[in-house]
Amino acid sequence: MTCYDRRDLGLLLLRLGTGGVLAAHGAQKLFGWFGGGGIAGTGQFMESVGYRPGRASATAAGLAETGGGLLLALGLATPAAGASAAGAMAGAAAVHAPNGFFAQNGGYEYAATLGLTSAGLAVTGPGRLSLDHALGHAVDRGWMVPAAFATVAAATAVVVGTRNRRLRRQREGEQEVLFEEDLME
Questions:
Q1: What pLDDT digit, counting tens, does each position of 77-114 carry?
Q2: Which uninterrupted H or E stretch holds 163?
Q3: Which residue from 152, 165, 161, 166 is spatially nearest to 47, judged by alpha carbons?
Q4: pLDDT tens, residue by residue, 161-176
Q5: Which three-class secondary structure state does DSSP give residue 93?
Q6: 140, 77 contact by CB (below 8 A)
Q7: Which end of the chain is more exposed for a tag (fewer CB within 10 A), N or C?
Q8: What residues contact residue 108 under an 8 Å CB cut-off, 6+ apart?
Q9: What pLDDT does 1 receive?
Q10: Residue 158 to residues 77, 81, 164, Cα–Cα distance (Å)
Q11: From CA 185, how far away is CA 29, in angstroms rounded?
């Protein structure tokens, strides 16, 4: 008989809460559930904030959030699940970063919290109340943590970097307002 401790229960609660929130956000993007825009609406939004092509970006973000969230909640393939969710949240944080930290000002606080919690779960592991534990940690090996983070970090750097370069080029082409018309009259 296995006795579960506070750590196992705490990890279960963190996984269920974080995974559930991520999965719901991903379902908004993929299926339009919970008031979301679905692929079409989210794709338009992604285009407007510099992630192109929009539909592909919406699909990738939706899959990372939904898949990563569900896997985190189940405690299955925890390194890959946590890393993919953290990568999606890094992409979201990049959009909100110009607004500062706090969410009430449109900042990246929320995305950072979900991303860091997901990353922490990937590193810590799912605990004994998980499918990873039940399956003998077949998809939760120690080497998988750095491999998952390296892969996701490289992909995230390319995607966010491409977006940032695109936005910078777009701003360079814009003319600053030199005179206010009201002042000229």
A1: 999 999 999 999 999 999 999 999 999 999 999 999 99
A2: helix 144-172
A3: 166
A4: 999 999 999 888 776 6
A5: helix
A6: yes
A7: N
A8: 92, 93, 94, 96, 97, 99, 100, 101
A9: 44
A10: 24, 20, 10
A11: 48
